[in-house]
Design brief:
Length: 355
């Protein structure tokens, strides 16, 4: 990849990214390269890795280098893109836009922290997995405008301070009369996005795709290698088919996010390897080393988002008076992995567990 140094006049809006993990750092870096005045708010453990600078790279594109302003490094080269870092929510107080990218289990806590510092009318954007986070933020942040967003691609921490986009896709954000500053910042950064009025359907569409997160985490291999094996794909097809049947029963719409309609996806996954490779290459591009965020969480011994993915399917089944045995089994296996259990299943071993 070619390294590109982007000039930023920092004439764009002040943006706080609350939850500076892989997604937050990557988005913040890209927005800063487009001229936004970005502050990354997160844990010192992550922010300390950025002392030498932030690097964000694309699946098939340039690598962008962003300077980091800290107490020890008060400024960077004039005209160069830069981000600030902070560990306290108060750093979001003056932001025109606050992007929330914490893990789903931390959403209510994040909303409560931001409620103490964000002024009335502040614009907040949830860029998280799951289907409930924007509503949780709205409950915690009365008097602010909260928009739902969806990041379709995978971001991996390539090394300390470097974050790589590992798959293709287009951002989706909620269409809203007050969303203009967000849309302008995305345009300036060159980030392709769609402003949508059907974000619940978009979020369910992403959730159905994200059911692979658990399977990838249990396989313990890169996404491309996992999806190259038909038996692993059959596990995903079974989990998706179960979720789609429940969504139909609940009359919940689901948006098409790739070239393949969501209800066709299980059938495509079950195709022979050679046919699947040909079709999948047209639907989504995946970096050979990309892994799921759930694998990252297990590797770092962090709680996963299993409750907001497979757990959401199980909860929907319970509300309908039904069962979701495939997704319930994946919840159980991830819970065991969080406790130190097996996370290097072969495809045949995982098929046996789901039967």
């Amino acid at each position: 990849m070619r390294a590109v140094q982007y000039r930023a006049d920092v004439s764009g809006p002040a943006i706080a990214v609350f939850g500076a993990g892989a997604i937050g750092c990557w988005l913040g870096g890209r927005l800063a390269a487009g001229g936004a005045d970005v502050t990354l708010i997160g844990r010192a453990r992550v922010l300390d890795e950025l002392a030498a600078g932030l690097t964000v790279s694309e699946l098939d594109g340039p690598t962008r280098t962003i300077g980091v302003v800290t107490a020890d490094t008060p400024d960077v080269a004039p005209g160069a893109p830069r981000v600030r870092t902070a560990t306290e929510p108060a750093a979001a107080a003056a932001a025109a836009i606050t992007i929330v990218s914490v893990k789903s289990a931390q959403t209510t806590e994040a909303g409560q922290a931001l409620a103490r510092v964000l002024p009335a009318g502040a614009l907040v954007v949830s860029m998280q997995n799951g289907v409930r986070n924007a509503d949780l933020l709205r409950a915690a942040l009365p008097g602010r405008t909260v928009l739902a967003g969806m990041v379709p691609w995978n971001v991996v921490r390539a090394r300390p301070g470097a974050y790589h986009r590992g798959s293709s896709g287009t951002l989706r954000v909620e269409r809203h009369p007050l969303g203009g500053p967000l849309y302008a910042a995305l345009d300036r950064a060159g980030l392709a996005y769609q402003a949508r009025t059907d974000m619940p359907a978009v979020q369910w569409g992403k959730l159905v795709m994200n059911l692979n997160n658990a399977i990838n985490a249990l396989a313990g291999i890169p996404l491309a290698a996992e999806l190259a094996q038909r038996a692993f794909r059959r596990c995903l097809a079974a989990a998706q088919r179960e979720a789609l049947e429940l969504l139909d029963a609940a009359h919940l719409p689901i948006a098409k996010l790739t070239l393949v309609p969501p209800r066709w996806m299980p059938r495509m996954l079950e195709l022979p390897d050679r046919v699947f490779r040909l079709l999948a290459a047209r639907a989504v591009a995946i970096d050979p080393q990309a892994r799921s965020s759930m694998w990252d969480d297990l590797e770092a011994e962090r709680p996963t988002e299993i409750d907001q993915l497979q757990g959401e399917v199980v909860a929907l089944a319970q509300r309908l008076g039904r069962a979701a045995p495939i997704n319930a089994a994946l919840v159980r296996l991830i819970r065991a992995a969080e406790a130190g259990g097996k996370r290097d299943f072969t495809a045949d071993e995982l098929v046996a567990q789901l039967r």
